[in-house]
Amino acid sequence: MVEADESVRRGTVLVARRPSDHVWLILIWLALLTIPFIAPNAYVVSLANMALINLILIASLNLLMGFGGQISLGHAGFFGLGAYASGILNVKLGLSAWLGLPAAALIAGAAALVIGLPALRLRGHYLSMATLGWNAILVVLFNQLVDLTGGPNGLLGVQPFSLFGIRLDTEPRTFPLVWLASLLIMLAILNLLRSRLGRALRAVATNELGADAIGVDSFCTKLLFFVLSAGMAGIAGSLYVHVNQYASPETFGISGSILLIVMVALGGSGTYWGPLLGALIYTAVPQLLLDYEDAELMLFGLGMLVVLIVFPGGLANVPGAFMRRFGLKGRS
Amino acid sequence: MTAKLLQVDNLFCHFDGVIAVADLSFSVRAGEIKAVIGPNGAGKSTLFNMIAGVTRPSAGQIRFDDERIDHLPTFRRARRGIARTFQNLQIFRDMSVLENVMVGRHMRSAAGMTQAILHSSALRAEERAIAAAAMDLLDRFGLASKAQTQAGTLSFGQLKVLELARSLACEPRLLLLDEPAAGLPHAEADRMGEIISSLNRDGMTVLLVEHNMRMVMSLSHDILVLNNGRRIAEGTADEVRRHPEVLAAYLGEAEDA
Amino acid sequence: MQTSSAFLQLLVAGISTGSIYALIALGFNVVFKSTGAMNFAQGEWVVMGGMISALLLGTFSSVGVACLLAVLLVAIFGLLSERLVIRPLRHPTALLITLVSIGLSICTRSFVMLTLGKKPVGYPGFSGATTISLGGVTFQAQTLWIVGLTLAFLVIMHFFFERSMLGKALRAAAADREAAAIVGVRVETTILISFGIAAFAGALAGAIITPLTLASYDQGAMFGFKGFSAAMLGGVGSLPGAVVGGLALGLLEAFGSFYISSDFKDAIAFAVLLLILFVRPSGLLGRADVVKV
């Protein structure tokens, strides 16, 4: 009985300890809020903006891939669809960016629904293939539908967000918006993971037979998170296009999708905080390697191989691995 | 006369011309423990998988609570009230022991996507209820001290119990147990038998496939014996034990072995 | 008459590109069979095959010799790559190998760029710039070389997998790792050899297509995706599937770009590919996964 009581106490501690990720999230985002004040120049703030948009992309892909076990090779495509949808609605129809944002989420989500309905019924590499084909088709459309997208020259003349008549068209002005959007997305993901839906998703990812046997609809669960993940990428796209006031096809290619997968893995696939590291790497490393010109690609590739071989669980798992090595109880 | 909870009529199953189950009819009454036994290759697993919804019957009907379920996918049968365990365990190894059982509450909870994203108070209340119910189950089966442990690190015997706890979290009306004692040492197998009979005393209907004859004979109210996909006997432990065809089937197997 | 000769012309073009895709898909499938991973480095080996052939042509005056040596060098490079980045993995899951192959592809591309330069290179075909006219269709002699060499390689591969001990061991390991290990097939060795074969097939594709298209360090990703799509179309892991998928994709592109629009060539090919997969999920020749309970 003593043992049972002890365990109940520990169980309650776990449930009670859960808000701590929420607390960390708020603390980290409060710290991020200082960036515009301590950044030496606007360029650094623009990098921070980009990092937070990348974070939305990587965290939403991690939700699908890391927690759901579904590999999408078309995440950059959904990003692009959101960007072009919001941008074109703005340029051609004069729709406000504030309406473009939800429209981008809905359009990207609806596209995911259309792809997911047939693709997710089957297991294996099927979703990878379908999303790869989808992304390839999108890139062709972005390039060739010149009247709509501006073609290879890109979509020009996208209006920024504006608030009470103030155009959010400088880095320090866009930062709060991107900051808030990334916070809300990270919060949404955390809440989802802490709910019955998130548990069902992880269950389906680890053992579909087991999940079926206890009444979890594997197909609908995967579809829901695929659509959610694509919708979040659409939001990132809308933010991107209105912050940069521009979009061009090469940003949204298959290599972009592959790099996003790599960033999920480097950060720590299936860990909540991993995407934060992934977004940091995605944004900062190309800047750091800029001086090495031709060797940049080689250094990036080698670095990636070293991380994958030495820390296959991703960088977010490194502290836990160290603590376990020294006999301390680690937490992933 | 107790109601028939599960009824199987003229069930057939063949793979590529090989007949696994042929013209099988039987029923499970509410509140009983029914065992399906038979030599290896008798069609027990196929039968089990057809009832659970993993394998499609080639012909015949399966009724649960007087409604046909043979066209339903597994998860829908689970939602009707049929929960199962697996012979080779299908555990969510990367999740904690507590979370494994909490997933079992999935179909008994309702919070939707919006509530989940907003972390509404209704959702938080439901989550607390799910955790409490799961913890109660772990307590009952002596796994409470392992609640936070990653499920994959448990021993085989503990995993068997965990899988049972997970299926009970669904609050099923019919429990399908696929070789609950297989691979367990003597003492643990006995304990599993005790758990099953205590569940039954609380009113649970159980259909089990098992090789451990001691367990089958002591637990079951009714035993169905299969050989080559057909029923060769059905009745109480004593009736089955004395049945000439059963003796022949098992002795035949013993001679082969 | 006009339309029928155009049709034949497209048929020839489609079969020639399709042969290249089939070779790449075959390499992709061999690695998939042995590891379960998607090998993103496959396309880089195609580029290497073409670029090293061009380099060696400076030393050896014969195109054939240069290409043969180049293909062998790339195969060795493939073996080395496996030893350097796949073998050190402690838990080589399919996903991890896939990710590592992305890193490998980045490094390989960069290596090619740094050592062989950024300029596109080319060389004459195996029969020079000879063109052949047949039944109103004109095509380069190299097209025949492409189809012939691809066919020869496929036949050799067929006999390798069906007849030789090593080929049988590879197939056994792909079918059931543990069982193969019990009868003494080393899984590490089969993965190593699969990388060698895949690199060889990719480099061969590169060496024979370069006279028609030129080779440049940045084409690897494109070749990789085409091979990946062809493999999916035919059925992942199936060797005849690679051939059927490659030819189907090549023909789709050729006819799609002529009859509909060359700007939308890739989109058409992929759209048809997705439609086929929706109807036949396991590919044209693949078998569906069976899960055992």
Plain-language structure description:
- The complex is a heterotrimer of chains A (332), B (257) and C (293).
- Chain A has a domain at 42-256.
- Chain A is built from 16 helices and 2 strands.
- In chain A, 73% of the residues lie in helices and 1% in strands.
- In chain A, strands 1-2 form a two-stranded antiparallel sheet.
- Chain A is globular.
- Chain A has helices at 2-17, 19-32, 35-38, 42-67, 75-93, 97-119, 126-144, 146-149, 171-193, 196-206, 208-213, 218-244, 254-267, 274-288, 296-310, 318-325, and strands at residues 162-163, 166-167.
- Mean pLDDT of chain A is 87; it is low at 1-11.
- Chain A starts with a helix and ends in a 7-residue tail after the last helix.
- Chain B has 2 domains: 1-81 and 172-257, Rossmann fold, CATH 3.40.50; 94-169, no CATH class.
- Chain B is globular and about 60 Å long.
- Chain B starts with a strand and ends with a helix.
- Chain C is mainly alpha-helical and 293 residues long.
- Chain C has one domain: ABC transporter involved in vitamin B12 uptake, BtuC (Orthogonal Bundle).
- Classes of the chains: A mainly alpha (332), B alpha/beta (257), C mainly alpha (293).
Which helices and strands, and how do they pair?
The complex is a heterotrimer of chains A (332), B (257) and C (293).
Chain A: H1 2-17, H2 19-32, H3 35-38, H4 42-67, H5 75-93, H6 97-119, H7 126-144, H8 146-149, E1 162-163, E2 166-167, H9 171-193, H10 196-206, H11 208-213, H12 218-244, H13 254-267, H14 274-288, H15 296-310, H16 318-325
Antiparallel strand pairs in A: 1-2
Helix pairs in contact in A: 2-9, 4-9, 4-12, 4-13, 4-14, 5-6, 5-7, 5-12, 6-12, 10-12, 13-14
Chain B: E1 4-15, E2 18-29, E3 33-37, H1 44-52, E4 59-64, E5 67-68, H2 74-80, E6 82-84, H3 97-104, H4 113-118, H5 121-140, H6 156-168, E7 174-178, H7 186-201, E8 205-209, H8 213-219, E9 222-227, E10 230-235, H9 237-242, H10 244-256
Parallel strand pairs in B: 3-8, 3-9, 6-7, 7-8
Antiparallel strand pairs in B: 1-2, 1-4, 4-5, 9-10
Helix pairs in contact in B: 3-5, 3-6
Chain C: H1 2-35, H2 42-56, H3 63-86, H4 94-116, E1 126-129, E2 131-134, E3 137-140, H5 141-163, H6 165-175, H7 177-182, H8 187-213, H9 220-234, H10 239-259, H11 265-279
Antiparallel strand pairs in C: 2-3
Helix pairs in contact in C: 1-5, 1-8, 1-9, 1-10, 2-3, 2-4, 2-8, 2-9, 3-8, 5-6, 5-8, 9-10, 10-11
